[in-house]
Amino acid sequence: MATPATLAIMAVRYGVADGALPAEYHEPVALGGGVTATFLPAGHVLGSAQILLEHAGERIIVTGDYKRSPDPTCQPFAVTPCDLFITEATFGLPVFRHPPIGEEIARLLAACSANPERCILVGAYALGKAQRVIAELRNAGWHDPIYLHGAMETMCRLYEELGVPLGDLRPAAGVPKADLAGAIVICPPSALNDRWSRRLPDPVTAMASGWMRVRQRVRQRGVELPLVISDHADWDELTATIADVNPAETWITHGREEALLRWCEIHQRRARALALTGYEDEDD
Questions:
Q1: To which H or E segment does residue 41 belong?
Q2: Hey, where are the domains in the chain?
Q3: 129-179: per-residue pLDDT in tens?
Q4: What are the tens digits of pLDDT across the range 28-69?
Q5: Three-class DSSP category at 255
Q6: What separation in angstroms does the CA of 158 have from each of 17, 162, 163, 250, 284?
Q7: Which one-letter DSSP state was computed for residue 248?
Q8: Dihedral (C-alpha) 123, 126, 127, 128: value to the nearest 10 degrees?
Q9: What's the Rg (C-alpha) of the chain?
Q10: What is the pLDDT of residue 193?
Q11: pLDDT higher than 80, residue 97
């Protein structure tokens, strides 16, 4: 994902003048030496970007994190033909096939209906995942207040300032325990089973993550309601994206490189795996 830190590093490395970096997607910027960079929507979270690098007619795309499934909180992934495609592979195994998010949201709402005396406590990554879950709940007809752990408030307010409506959001802190019965509360995954959650009325612990496809992860987290909701491409999205982009060569990194490399070999596509240090499984 392109971040302000990424932009700053590029500016220092390539000597880009202040104000020369793109303010919008699809705006090329000269990096020097005949190289131009263009930021393209990645569909990962709000503001996430692929980077298209062009030089002497050659096109390279670095995807960063991305997904292809619909997300009301960010622009969709832009399929862009290129010569070299560098793709993530966080969920690069055939076992990782994520269900439509509407099905998982329906399971969450069913849990609310079935447990009116309890609250539903949803662990979700603070950047992107929490806002996506909230937006999908609104789209599914949940218009009651959604309560937030304090660590979620700043990012949710930022999304709203940037034009993503999230409805009635309220801090969970200070709300009487009885008033949270039947409510949905969003918190960081780390808060699901800590002291903070004990103030809630017998919470049904849920977690929104692509890793909830793995039973061992569910048990490790002590999750009662696993929600397979990911902001990364699943196996089918990864392979479909390589086919759609149709690069001359694919480099695979950040995840399960071997399986996706084998898929490329079977489909007569040139590919190589990049094993980068420091990239392990992440909360999703």
A1: strand 35-41
A2: 4-95+232-273, 101-227
A3: 999 999 999 999 999 999 999 999 999 999 999 999 999 999 999 999 999
A4: 999 989 999 999 999 999 999 999 999 999 999 999 999 999
A5: strand
A6: 28, 6, 9, 35, 20
A7: S
A8: 30
A9: 20
A10: 86
A11: yes
Please tell me whether the overall predicted TM-score, pTM, comes out greater than 0.85 for this model. yes
Position 22 confidence tier, pLDDT thresholds 50, 70, 90: low
The CA-CA-CA angle for residues 96, 105, 49, to 5°, reads 60
Domains 4-95+232-273 and 101-227 share a fold: no
Structure tokens at 197: 């959650």
Written as six digits, the tokens of 35 are 């190289």
Label residues 23-40 b or e (16+ Cβ within 10 Å = b).
Answer: eeeeeebebeeeeebbbb
Any idea which residue has 């970096």 for tokens? 21
For 101-227, CATH number out of 2.40.128, 3.40.1350, 3.30.450, 3.40.50 equals 3.40.50
- HSE (CB half, 13 Å, CA atoms) of 169? 25
Q: What angle do CA 133, 191, 216 make, to 5 degrees?
A: 80
CATH class of 4-95+232-273: alpha beta
Question: Which of 206, 216, 167 has the alpha carbon at shortest distance from 186?
Answer: 206
Angle, vertex CA 2, rays to CA 171 and CA 240, nearest 5: 100
Residue type present at position 7: L
Does pLDDT of 5 surpass 90?
A: no
Q: Who has greater pLDDT, 211 or 280?
A: 211
Percent of the chain with pLDDT over 70: 89
Pairing mode, if any, of strands 225-227 and 204-208? parallel
Which two structure tokens, joined as six digits, stand for 22?
């793109």
pLDDT at 280 over 70: no
